[in-house]
Design goal:
Blueprint lengths: L5 H8 L4 E5 L4 E5 L2 H38 L3
Antiparallel strand pairs: 1-2
């Protein structure tokens, strides 16, 4: 079980992540509130969706340009 100090709990309540050493694992873990993680995940998913959409439009543009160049040689 992870135990937090009062200061760590206060930082979490403010919406910030907290780094905690877990002896059973022998390393640090980062603790965040579930709502904060879900919010971050949502923003990241929206960003990834936008990147994929832009990449798809870019590919369509590239294909159109290649097609036009084949049909209209210089």
């Amino acid at each position: 079980m992870i135990e937090l100090t009062d200061k760590q709990a206060s930082v979490l309540k403010q919406g910030y992540p907290v780094r905690v050493f877990v002896p059973e694992l022998g390393e640090d873990v980062v603790v965040v509130l579930a709502a904060q993680r879900e919010s971050t995940e949502s923003v990241l998913q929206e960003t990834l969706d936008e990147i994929r959409e832009k990449a798809a439009f870019s590919e369509l543009g590239r294909r159109a340009a290649v097609s036009w160049m084949k049909e209209n040689p210089f």
